[in-house]
From TrEMBL:
Residues 141-151 have a biased composition (Basic and acidic residues). Homotetramer. GO terms for molecular function: DNA binding. The keyword Membrane does not apply. InterPro entries: NA-bd_OB-fold (IPR012340), Primosome_PriB/ssb (IPR000424), ssDNA-bd (IPR011344). It comes from the Bacteria. The lineage of its organism: Bacteria, Bacillati, Actinomycetota, Actinomycetes, Kitasatosporales. This is Single-stranded DNA-binding protein. It comes from Streptomyces neyagawaensis. Residues 109-157 are annotated as: Disordered.
Length: 157
């Protein structure tokens, strides 16, 4: 497993899920990162490939994410990138996770109002959310419904 510090800018692709563990709060969400480039032939900006990362937050950061970040929000995430490969059903899968140390709204795309959390307290917890489906459709399968057009999976082939 490789590990590198990164700063990633993208949109929240799944509603953050927060859990209370024996080690403290833990939150995760999927982040969609789409590159853009200038297409000289069309003379316009064009969306490139979209990469999906699972973002993990711990302790106070997790509680604050649960109270501040929603599906579709543009965010900036700083943390350790962890890339893993594994074998499943005879295929090689790659997953990319970011163990976040800081998360904030991308202020180049909107405004945000900061509220400091008093020491020793955590932000008001959002109501529990059902666990999302983190799997990717089988290779070659066409995505037809709106929900299927926004993948929530970790693995890519």
């Amino acid at each position: 497993m490789n590990e590198t510090m990164v700063c990633v800018v993208g949109n929240v692709a799944t509603q953050p899920v927060c859990r209370e563990l024996s080690t403290g709060s833990s939150a995760r969400f999927r982040l969609a990162v789409t590159s853009r480039y200038w297409d000289r032939e069309k003379s316009e900006w064009t969306d490139g490939h979209t990469n999906f990362f699972t973002v993990w937050a711990r302790r106070t950061l997790a509680a604050n994410v649960a109270s501040s970040v929603s599906l579709g929000d543009p965010v900036v995430v700083q943390g350790r990138l962890k890339v893993r490969t594994e074998q499943r059903d005879g295929q090689s899968w790659v997953s990319a996770d970011v163990d976040a140390v800081a998360i904030g709204h991308d202020l180049s795309r909107g405004t945000s109002a900061f509220r400091r959390t008093p020491r020793g307290e955590t932000a008001t917890q959002a109501p529990p959310q059902p666990e999302p489906n983190w799997e990717t459709p089988a290779p070659g399968r066409r995505l037809d419904t709106e929900a299927e057009l926004h993948p929530e999976a970790v693995g890519v082939t």
